[in-house]
Amino acid sequence: MLELHDVTAGYGDTVVLRGVTLEVPDSTVVALLGPNGAGKTTLLRTASGLIRPMGGRIVLAGEDVTGRKAYHMARRGLCHLPEGRGIFPSLSVRDNLVLESPKGREGESIAQAVEAFPVLGTRLRQMAGSLSGGEQQMLALVRGFVTNPKLVVVDEASLGLAPLVVDQIFETLRRIVATGAALLLVEQYVNRALDLADHVYLMNRGQIVFSGPSDQLRGEEVFERYLGIEVGAGG
């Protein structure tokens, strides 16, 4: 579904990603883990077309999309759920859902949102920016359902949320995967990510330092050896 081949990217003259190669096959969950500042968000933004790569090649659904804009990636089935919610705070919950909905399916999308997160059904007229952090994240995650994506890219969906809300977020991610979409996940809760993922990449200082099935990381010292953190860090 998604392939990055020897990708270099960054901001201005600052290089963040250095020769990154990564693959997300169809209908699989891939976790991208690493310490703060490793380049994970930059990788997601580059894959989504928000940052133009300095070098290398990006392939999405069999098409070379290197240098294409984010709207092209979205039309090809990529849904990017960024860190920091990614909603329209000055619009109502209903209007946010309508904007995210395929044309002519607005009612169906609202019904999907309420089914996934019943609390949103009681907030439809409320301004999205006045929702709690957890409710805002729920609203953002609904996009992973209503746009019928082929690939969902998620950046720190659980960041700053209470444990009970984190449980709901991960249940929603499982439901998205159940639709057949592939998932590329950046997540602070290492063990939760490992439970969900089929394959894991560890990233440090802009480079991939480990790639393998998620079960290879259990009971081993890979995290400590490559990243200087324990497997249990972050939950």
Describe the 3D structure.
The protein has helices spanning 40-47, 70-75, 93-100, 106-116, 118-121, 133-141, 143-146, 163-178, 190-196, 222-227, and strands spanning 2-11, 14-24, 29-33, 55-60, 63-64, 78-81, 151-155, 182-186, 199-204, 207-213. It is of the alpha/beta class. It has two domains: 1-77 and 149-235, Rossmann fold (3-Layer(aba) Sandwich), CATH 3.40.50.300; 85-146, no CATH class. It has a six-stranded mixed sheet with strand order 6-7-8-3-9-10, with helices on both faces. A four-stranded antiparallel sheet has the order 2-1-4-5, with helices on one face. Helix 3 crosses helix 4 and helix 6 (133-141) runs parallel beside helix 8.
What is the helix/strand order?
A: EEEHEEHEHHHHHEHEHEEH
Overall average pLDDT: 87
The portion of residues assigned to helices is 25-40%
Give me the CATH architecture of the largest domain, please: 3-Layer(aba) Sandwich
Shape verdict: globular
User: Total number of helical segments?
Assistant: 10
Cα gyration radius (Å)? 17 Å
Number of domains: 2
Uncertain runs with pLDDT below 50, 5 residues or more?
231-235
| Proportion of strand residues | 25-35%
Q: CATH topology of the largest domain, which one? A: Rossmann fold
Number of strands: 10
What is the CATH homology-level superfamily of the largest domain?
Answer: P-loop containing nucleotide triphosphate hydrolases
Strand order of the largest sheet: 6-7-8-3-9-10
Instruction: Specify the CATH class of the largest domain.
Output: Alpha Beta
Largest sheet: 6 strands, mixed
Distance between the termini: 29 Å
The SS-based structural class is: alpha/beta
